[in-house]
């Protein structure tokens, strides 16, 4: 493509009100689903910067997040580009091939068996990686892959944070963990728990949070520039930033003790619910989910749609 064609495409793109189109798309989806809440359908977040490149994130209903793909010279341009990426993914996600059906589950499981050198007998056993993956797919039948990815983000974060390892050590079964967290939203309490875990690690390894945060920022930038869904990377950055902001406060010890004890007492943590002598986990609950991105992008046109 020539530079002249690029300029023409850019001008045509600016003429489109993609921000309004994205809002209208999700507003119509809520009308079709008989949902009356229309406020904050789409949330934009511009990253403060003294100059270009400007960065903007857009979060959709349900939590999926996208960012601007291009090098943007203005905040308005970054906002439009983020909206464009989100709109492309939103409309593409509505295609029949993006919905989890029995046929889709069968194809995914067969591919998982080939990829992991497993066997079909494991499908009926939730204690295996393949069985856990099948259970999650089956329990989300009818949902789109974007909705499934939103659920997977929770398990990705639990795996990254070491929470799933703690469940394994407490002999919680995969089925119990999946059942519990499939109904649990990624909220401030869950983020706070993860931040507190990183604060405790910081005590033993000073500087750990700063290093992890720099890594998370690089991963977020790379994913944004590749036009990928960003919720997992952005949540990592937010959790680590929260932990870093608390790392040097004088109330750190009291905060770690009292806050965690209070949340646990109220039942906000899953350990009180899940520590019930279940089957021992031989591997992380997220073993099948580590391949989630592969299945999420299994249609060859996915990556092309983002560029």
TrEMBL record:
Pfam family, one: LIX1
Name this polypeptide is given: Protein limb expression 1 homolog
Family per similarity comment: Belongs to the LIX1 family.
GO biological process: autophagosome maturation
Gene Ontology cellular component list: cytoplasm
InterPro entries reported for this sequence: Autophagy-related_EPG5 (IPR051436), LIX1 (IPR029270)
Source organism of the structure: Tachysurus vachellii (Darkbarbel catfish)
Organism lineage string: Eukaryota, Metazoa, Chordata, Craniata, Vertebrata
PANTHER family: ECTOPIC P GRANULES PROTEIN 5 HOMOLOG, PROTEIN LIMB EXPRESSION 1 HOMOLOG
């Amino acid at each position: 493509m020539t530079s002249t064609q690029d300029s023409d495409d850019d001008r045509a793109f600016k003429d489109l009100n993609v921000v309004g189109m994205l809002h209208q798309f999700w507003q119509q989806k809520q009308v079709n689903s008989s949902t009356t809440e229309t406020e904050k359908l789409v949330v934009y977040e511009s990253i403060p910067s003294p100059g270009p490149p400007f960065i903007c994130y857009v979060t959709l209903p349900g939590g999926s997040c996208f960012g601007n793909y291009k090098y943007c010279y203005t905040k308005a341009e970054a906002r439009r580009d983020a909206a464009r990426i989100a709109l492309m993914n939103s409309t593409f996600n509505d295609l029949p091939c993006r919905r989890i059906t029995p046929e889709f589950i069968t194809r995914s499981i067969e591919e998982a068996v080939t990829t992991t050198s497993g066997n079909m007998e494991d499908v009926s056993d939730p204690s295996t990686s393949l069985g856990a993956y099948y259970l999650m797919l089956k329990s989300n039948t009818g949902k789109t892959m974007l909705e499934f990815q939103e659920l997977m983000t929770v398990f990705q974060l639990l795996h990254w944070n070491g929470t799933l390892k703690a469940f394994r050590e407490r002999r919680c079964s995969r089925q119990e963990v999946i059942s519990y967290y499939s109904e649990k939203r990624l909220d401030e309490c869950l983020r706070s728990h993860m931040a507190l875990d990183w604060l405790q690690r910081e005590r033993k390894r000073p500087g750990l949070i700063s290093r992890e945060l720099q890594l998370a920022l690089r991963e977020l930038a790379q994913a944004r520039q590749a036009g990928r869904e960003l919720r997992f990377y952005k949540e990592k950055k937010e959790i680590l930033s929260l932990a870093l902001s608390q790392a040097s406060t004088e109330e750190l010890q009291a905060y770690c003790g009292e806050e965690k004890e209070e949340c646990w007492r109220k039942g906000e943590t899953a350990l009180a619910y899940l520590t019930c002598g279940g089957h021992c986990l031989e591997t992380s609950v997220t073993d099948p989910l580590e391949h989630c991105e592969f299945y999420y992008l299994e249609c060859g046109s996915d990556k092309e749609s983002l560029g």
